[in-house]
Amino acid sequence: MRSHLGSITLDVATGWADVTEDGPLTLVRQAEDATGALQFSVALFESGREPGVTVEHLEEMLRECGVTHRLGEMFNGRKSCGRLLTAAGSFRSEGSFWRVWYISDGRNVAMVTYNTSLGSEGRELADCESMVASIEFPPGSAT
User: Fold this and answer.
1) Where exactly are the structural domains of the chain?
2) Domain range 2-133, CATH class
3) How much of the chain exceeds pLDDT 70, in percent?
4) Which of 15, 53, 83, 102 could form a disulfide with 58 if both were Cys (CB 3.0 to 4.6 A apart)?
5) What one-character DSSP code corresponds to residue 13?
């Protein structure tokens, strides 16, 4: 179902719900065996010189995220330059699985994270990948 989540829109997978209270925009799967959370932080271009975000910028932010948060060695890295620029990677850290995406339309940027118990990511990761790929920034905000 196409939904607004803060300033972005995306296709929310069946069984997932917005549980945002205070803090980052958060989706969780509404099931007894649900284990993870998909969270979004969005920075929208407002004025000034356009940033000209590239996939290389996103890859650097992804690397810095892994180092800053001590997530360990990245694996399953992926980048794409389609409708959205994307840099993504997975990490294992202290019993947790992390998937981190940096998404941009060249002007706006979203950092999206999925965190769950290590070994349980198989139940939800495909849904998360699909939801992230469906992100759209506000109309008129892209170049």
Assistant:
1) 2-133
2) alpha beta
3) 97
4) 102
5) P
